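Lab channel / #folding
Pinned by the channel admin:
"Please post every new chain as: sequence first, then the structure tokens as a reply. Keep commentary short and put observations after the output so the thread stays searchable."

First post following the new format, from NK:
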Amino acid sequence: MSLIAQRDLFGGAITADLPKCLIDVAQLRDVPDTQEVFVYPDSPASFIIEVLERVSQIDDHEAAKFHFSALDEAPSPEHQTVQDIQTIANDGGNGTPSPIVLHGKQKMHKFNRQSLDEVEILLALFRVQTKNIDLVVSANIPTAVHEGGAVGVYQVPGIKSDFYSLIRSLRIVDYGLFA
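Reply from TO:
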């Protein structure tokens, strides 16, 4: 388990607990204003927090599946598996909605390679209905990479624990972010 600290996201409009060791990718390269991206210093696993326009799916589970499918640039249904979807009760901190959490796997082409890499995905969808926004938090855990660099089996439980700490602690502090 990583040492955790509260971090300000999107200029402080959102707060969440993240491992202290995570590197803010915006310090290394350009990241869209609608995203916060973090990577581990010793692993290809990443966390992405993204503000998106609310999708038309009314059913929350279907909306989570839509966002899961959209993570792959060239989605192929036979390369995607949804293993579980559940809603995690939120204590309602500042009206932050309860996340719908999807656990799945995808086989995808990464970095323009021909081979398919296997990526375990944890996705949390916070539907901010009053602002017509879907806040999506995803953990991308490459578990089988043909050219090396997969997350070690021993690292996966810690990454999952970090993801659940993030989504349970996530608080929307300033809804003006979604104006």
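NK: The beta strands are 4-9, 14-19, 23-24, 35-39, 46-53, 80-87, 100-108, 117-128, 133-144, 171-172.
TO: also worth noting, The longest strand covers residues 117-128.
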